[in-house]
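check this one:
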Amino acid sequence: ALFLGPGGAGERQRSGVGSRTMSASIYSTKVDAESAMTTNGRDVELLPFVNDKHGGVIIEMTTPMDPQLFSASLKSLLSKWREQGIRGVWIKLPISLANLIQSAVEEGFWYHHAEETYLMLAYWLPNTPHTLPVNATHRVGVGAFVMNDKREVLVVQEKSGVLKGLGIWKFPTGVVEPGEDINIGVVREVKEETGVDAEFVEVLAFRQSHKAYFEKSDLFFVCILRPLSFDITKQESEIEDAQVIQICIFSIMLFNTVLRKGDIFYWFTSVSSQLVLCKHSVDAPLLKCSGCRWRNSRHNRLSSNMNS
């Protein structure tokens, strides 16, 4: 017998259904469908699927199938699921089964997201606006403000990107990997780019920007790091040069560059330098967001100062 599971109507999940949330942990029922059946005179094969916890169904294809047979089987299942009140239907297709994409699209599926090894398609069965969660909306970048007790900071020049060949010094930056914490990611980026071992101290500032990367938004965190040494071994593939310089000299150099005030590198460097020049220390944490500043009060509670 074919078990389709409960046809409940789940609410929209704010956490989203991304490449890492659609794992075995959300599956409530698993169906092993390898036998064949006949519907309305057509041979169809039961597709492997599971019911999720939100009233939806996930088809996860792993073995090759003729596109016409796949289309007929999918059409049959969609009809049954619609009768049972199932709402959201997902299809996970590995790259090796990309020949089935057209069949799914012809049945009404759309692209939801793609990763290195698979494509996820989605479909909404009811005749109502869909409430399926959108794909991941942000990526997370980090910048490292690495300074020792002599007020010397670690700076680099890049071999590629918008600053290539301009002779501009900047702080090490990078992108946090999937599943990686910000404090771990920024330490890793410093080590990879400069060879310097450092320890995370605190988040100094953060900034949100939009349409930064393939139309996605970007969250950029400036972090204070304490160097364990300044033994530099630059990353040959990405870094043109790396050195240690006095923060006051670096601040003067910043204002003689071609960077614009709205540029992320200008903002990052300016915020970090100004706070340090104002005798900011790790004993007086400060978190600054574009548009407002948040300080730790004497009672160790965050208080806002919108005019600072």
